[in-house]
Design brief:
mainly alpha; Serine Threonine Protein Phosphatase 5, Tetratricopeptide repeat; 5 helices
């Protein structure tokens, strides 16, 4: 029997914790959905890193690289020295 999981909770920390629990259970696709929600809410380096790591675990390296590149382009002041053009 499959469980239905709903992304709930207002705080990014709650969403991130749910994602990490799913990741620990091996539910990578569901964890990705939670990490995406956390990233869409916060769009910071920590939430990006969590999302990228789960993508890599699923073999989605090209998408992970694209997310990093987009983040760096949008945040030039933070990482000007490592920006990939």
């Amino acid at each position: 029997m499959q469980e239905a999981i709903t992304i709930t909770g207002d705080s990014d920390e709650t969403i991130n914790n749910q994602a990490k629990l799913l990741e620990a259970k091996g539910e990578l696709a569901l964890a990705e959905a939670f990490f995406r929600k956390a990233y869409n809410n916060a769009s910071n380096a920590d939430s990006l890193n969590d999302l990228v790591q789960i993508l890599i675990k699923q073999g989605k390296k090209a998408e992970a690289i694209q997310l990093y590149q987009n983040y760096l382009k949008e945040n030039r002041d933070v990482h000007e020295d490592i920006l990939i053009e």
